[in-house]
From TrEMBL:
It is an enzyme of class 3 (hydrolase). It comes from Streptomyces subrutilus. Zn(2+) binds at residues 292, 297, 299, 305. PROSITE patterns: ENGC_GTPASE, G_CP. GTP binds at residues 162-165, 212-220. Its EC number is 3.6.1.-. GO terms for biological process: ribosomal small subunit biogenesis. One of several proteins that assist in the late maturation steps of the functional core of the 30S ribosomal subunit. Helps release RbfA from mature subunits. May play a role in the assembly of ribosomal proteins into the subunit. Circularly permuted GTPase that catalyzes slow GTP hydrolysis, GTPase activity is stimulated by the 30S ribosomal subunit. This is Small ribosomal subunit biogenesis GTPase RsgA. It is found in: Cytoplasm. Monomer. Associates with 30S ribosomal subunit, binds 16S rRNA. InterPro entries: G_CP_dom, P-loop_NTPase, Ribosome_biogen_GTPase_RsgA, RsgA_GTPase_dom. The keyword GTP-binding applies. Belongs to the TRAFAC class YlqF/YawG GTPase family. RsgA subfamily.
Length: 366
């Protein structure tokens, strides 16, 4: 495995800086690794193995293929993900990930399974570009779901309205969408005409990830930002539904600094423990609710409801409140399912420990 000289400032201060390494990571790395390990960043994960970028000398980097077996975990939330920082070791048995560093931020959705588990889409991210195509009418409810996940991650969301060259009135759509995205920059761009791409490149700082439905244009945007054709692109189907082009999450350095993660299209945008994200996504409703007469006001027909008054006055849309209440219910349901699953797993672990303890006691007596 390539090695790099150390420095008083950081373990690998130069080569991995382009991928987001900072001196703050030194202590975390030292706490999980031994002298035979080197730090690296996971740029791709695929079936028990991952590609990790590591320092190669004092000025370059190289990619190693590492086995993820030592950090495999039944909980998908704890398995390696694109964007993770890792301690990598090369030995006679091959190269493998010995440990993962704690995640600073993570974008998580509920998994497709029925076990109420979370799936990490990207780790240690700074900016999340929620990509929405303008060649069809934007689904405001889906946008709100994406923004709730983005806010919950700890990163800064940016709403990217793409294919502006195919929209009849892109600015009018922007005004509508902005009402569903308080506190979020809403950019109108076209990767085909390059319109707005310079602004997008400026706001995607640090580690950025592009998320959205298939066919939204994420890969086309990624190619423009990367300055080369890296991600495969395909035209949207004739029925308006997207085609899956990106099949895995991959981290790549941007020419102007920072790194970009492109992701496969997401059809199901399930919430996962996103209470804080919902509060920020619907911040105006949260603020109005503080003025309601009753603390447990459900904003239906209670007297002194500031939220209902805002709707009657035309200051708040009924659609917005309906979406808020729907997502709150969904998040509470998934949270209760998750709590129940954790309780079952703890009970199973205690039973296993009890059986093992009893077996040991009998063995000693024998």
């Amino acid at each position: 495995m390539p090695h790099s000289s150390t420095s008083a400032d950081s373990i690998y201060p130069r080569p991995l800086e382009a991928y987001g390494w900072s001196p703050e990571l030194d202590e975390q790395f030292a706490s999980v690794a031994d002298a035979s390990c080197v730090p690296g960043r996971v740029i791709r994960v695929d079936r028990g193995r991952c590609d990790v970028v590591v320092a190669d000398g004092d000025s370059g980097v190289s990619v190693v293929h590492a086995d993820t077996g030592p950090v495999a975990d039944p909980d998908p939330m704890k398995t390696p993900c694109t964007g993770d920082w890792a301690a990598v070791r090369a030995g006679a048995a091959g190269t493998y990930v010995q440990a993962l560093l704690p995640r600073r931020t993570a974008m998580v959705r509920s998994s497709a399974s029925q076990r109420s588990e979370g799936q990490v889409l990207a780790a240690n991210i700074d900016t999340i570009g929620v990509v929405v195509a303008l060649d069809t009418e934007p689904d405001l409810g889906r946008i709100e779901r994406f923004l709730a996940l983005a806010w919950e991650s700890g990163a800064q969301p940016v709403l990217v309205l793409t294919k502006s060259d195919l929209a009849e009135d892109a600015e009018s759509v922007r005004e509508t969408v902005e009402q569903a995205a308080p506190g979020v920059d809403v950019l109108v761009v076209s990767a085909t005409t390059d319109d707005g791409m310079d602004i997008l490149a400026a706001v995607l700082t640090g580690t950025s990830v592009l998320v959205g439905q298939s066919g939204a244009g994420k890969s086309t945007i990624a190619n423009v930002l990367l300055g080369r054709s890296v991600m495969e692109t395909r035209q949207t189907r004739s029925d308006g539904k997207g085609r899956h082009t990106t099949t895995t999450r991959e981290l790549m350095p941007l020419p102007g600094g920072g790194v970009l993660i492109d992701t496969p299209g997401i059809r199901g945008v399930g919430l996962y423990d996103a209470a804080d994200g919902l509060q920020q996504t619907f911040s105006e409703i949260e603020q109005l609710a503080e003025e309601c007469r009753f603390r447990d006001c459900e904003h239906i027909a209670e007297p002194g409801c500031a939220v209902r008054e805002a709707i009657d006055d035309g200051m708040l849309q009924q659609r917005r409140l309906d979406s808020y209440q729907k997502l709150i219910r969904e998040n509470q349901w998934i949270a209760s399912r998750s709590d129940a699953r954790l309780r079952q797993e703890r009970l199973k672990a205690l039973k296993t420990q009890g059986k093992e303890g009893m077996a040991n006691m009998i063995a000693k007596r024998g």
